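Sync notes, pocket subgroup
Present: LS, DG
LS reminded everyone that the earlier model was apo-only. Rerun requested with magnesium ion included. Inputs:
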Amino acid sequence: MSKSQKTSIAKPATLERGEARYFHGRVKILDNFEELLDRAKKGDSGTSVLIQAAPGAGKTALLHECARIAGGRGYAVAEVEPTWFLDPKTLHKSIRSSWKNWIAWLEQGAVNIDIGVLKAELIAGRGAKTPIDVIKKGKGPLLLLLDEAQRLVRITHEHERERFMQVVDMLKVIHAGGAGRPVILLASGLGATRQAFADLDISRFDPGCEINLEPLDEGSRRAVIHDWLLEEGEAKGDPAPWINTIAVETHGWPQHIMAYVWPALRQLKLTGGELTPEGLETALEEGRKGRIEFYKARTRDFPREQLHCIARVLAFSPSGTSVAKMDIMASLRMEFSEDKAEEIFTLALYKGILDMRDNLYVVPIPSMHDWLVDNFARYRAPLFPPPPPPDLSIEHAPKEHDQRLEW
Ligand SMILES: Nc1ncnc2c1ncn2[C@@H]1O[C@H](COP(=O)(O)OP(=O)(O)OP(=O)(O)O)[C@@H](O)[C@H]1O
Ligand SMILES: [Mg+2]
């Protein structure tokens, strides 16, 4: 386990996203990443690494963990945004300010490395004409963190060709290890990210450099809950019943774990750390609500009839199993044009409702699959528009003699 040294996560709003205060698991991925850092340093080269996973799988938390490890191995670390790649000046300025934050963090003693080397990096890249020159001008090992990398797809569509080609050039040079120094681009994003890279002509990654995040394994999910309850919640007594129940209900999905941990901490605060059965019941109820809110937020951009088309296909396969694109498209085409159907499918990938596995598609969180089926599979759009409401104004009120006539 590594405990983050940052002191900022105090608000509940940030608890379910971002850097983990008690990071566990992902051991194999981190081992591979450490090896890559060392290899890149030795060979003066580098590459790009893609973490593609569904919402709440722990991408951002993993990025921070990788940054911490890289910092400890002498890498300068800079968080970047896709649009920064379009303009060398912005890229340089942003990398500089990102490094300044990073150095400030290092100076707090979080990671013990040579800050002088990093400070020298701050002046490199000035006056560069293209994005790749910004990267090439520096000297030491560099880790670029690109979160929400599915947004790369936007720069494909929204910018003039020359500038766009410079971004492609930069990404390709980094990917091929040709920056003239150790540079690693660590990109994480939702299900559309691999495609966004493919559109930029980057479709093959080195072994171990294309990562799909699964739920946390049994031991790690328990360890996370344990740390939150005992370290933050100062729970007294045997936490096993709480840990077991929360671990089972959350399927090891990091966002879900946090959705339950927060109400659990609130209950512990109320009871001064006593682990009461009533407290657990309330925490579970609130956690379940939080889970549903998360699904609602993820599906907000889809009208009901679109979700219905997806859910009625899912209803034929148990949660956690895959469906073919062909089947979802056939369902969408029954209600929408070919183009619209394609657009809805792409949005479902982009929003993380669907994730690609072995050329098939799966709803990455099993309980979200069930929620979609329960709430949308049986939905039917009304066949006819509803009749207009009756006109109740005086002129249209039925007259007495009319009524008599009807009798
Ligand atoms: N390995 C882990 N150990 C402990 N906590 C974790 C781990 N991974 C993620 N978390 C926590 O779970 C929550 C969700 O993780 P995170 O925000 O990284 O997911 P994400 O995949 O980036 O989600 P999104 O797609 O919404 O950006 C965060 O509070 C994070 O700190
Ligand atoms: Mg994230």
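DG: The pocket of magnesium ion (ligand 2) is lined by residues 17, 59-60, 147 (CB under 6 Å).
LS: The first strand starts at residue 2 and ends at 3.
Action: DG to write up.
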